[in-house]
Amino acid sequence: MSSDTTKVLGMPRPRGPEDAHRLAIEPIDTSFSFKNKAYAALKNVIVSMDIYRSRADIRLDERQLAQDFGISRTPVREAMAQLEREGFVRSVPRRGVYVVRKTKKEVIELITAWAALESMAARLITEKSASDSEIASLRQMFATFEDGQLRAHLDEYSEVNIEFHQSIIRMSGNGVLIDLAENLFTHMRMIRRKTIVEKDRADKSIRDHMNIIEALEAHDTARAETLVRDHALGLADHVAKYADYLD
């Protein structure tokens, strides 16, 4: 990583176009663990960033972050250590801590693992882990879409898309599966936000989602499981073919 393509998050500087990547930090509430609060705040900001739209490295400045949070550097350092264990940041000796961008291979592996978890969730849903009313609630997410046509901005649909897949996982009712999927999908949501605007994927995504809902409503286990798995693996194929920005 070259110094001329590095953005430093938390470092004071003049305002400019690159400030879209500036961490929006508020003082931390002292009623909860400083480390947990710092961890949650940093993770939320990292996940919300469009890290795949720019090739510039994004560095976290520990000292400035501590000042922004209004706490000492120790809980910030602990929070970043936890984020590193979870694969969101990496520490480079004598250089600092940087936000991680997954490689194409790593993203495809994440999606493949997600396909296995979500397809099992679909199976569990059809085997009565979710009520008919819960399954029907999935349709309400698409209230802004009519006759398969997109009636919302892509940014809005991207969030609906993410919530749809998280809901399927939650509706499985399997605590272990839910825990396994949580961190995995946090990584995936960043790449989903980027890919949903590519190659008419939003239109195809809507059609796939409606077919999945119909299979879940019919409690057609084999079809629901297959549709969910193929939908996820379709994203993996798309990344393999078109996501050259991950190389």
Automatic annotation (TrEMBL):
<keyword id="KW-0805">Transcription regulation</keyword>
<dbReference type="Pfam" id="PF07729">
    <property type="entry name" value="FCD"/>
</dbReference>
<dbReference type="InterPro" id="IPR008920">
    <property type="entry name" value="TF_FadR/GntR_C"/>
</dbReference>
<dbReference type="Pfam" id="PF00392">
    <property type="entry name" value="GntR"/>
</dbReference>
<dbReference type="InterPro" id="IPR000524">
    <property type="entry name" value="Tscrpt_reg_HTH_GntR"/>
</dbReference>
<dbReference type="GO" id="GO:0003677">
    <property type="term" value="F:DNA binding"/>
</dbReference>
<keyword id="KW-0238">DNA-binding</keyword>
<keyword id="KW-0804">Transcription</keyword>
<protein>
    <submittedName>
        <fullName>GntR family transcriptional regulator</fullName>
    </submittedName>
</protein>
<dbReference type="InterPro" id="IPR036390">
    <property type="entry name" value="WH_DNA-bd_sf"/>
</dbReference>
<dbReference type="GO" id="GO:0003700">
    <property type="term" value="F:DNA-binding transcription factor activity"/>
</dbReference>
<dbReference type="InterPro" id="IPR036388">
    <property type="entry name" value="WH-like_DNA-bd_sf"/>
</dbReference>
<dbReference type="InterPro" id="IPR011711">
    <property type="entry name" value="GntR_C"/>
</dbReference>
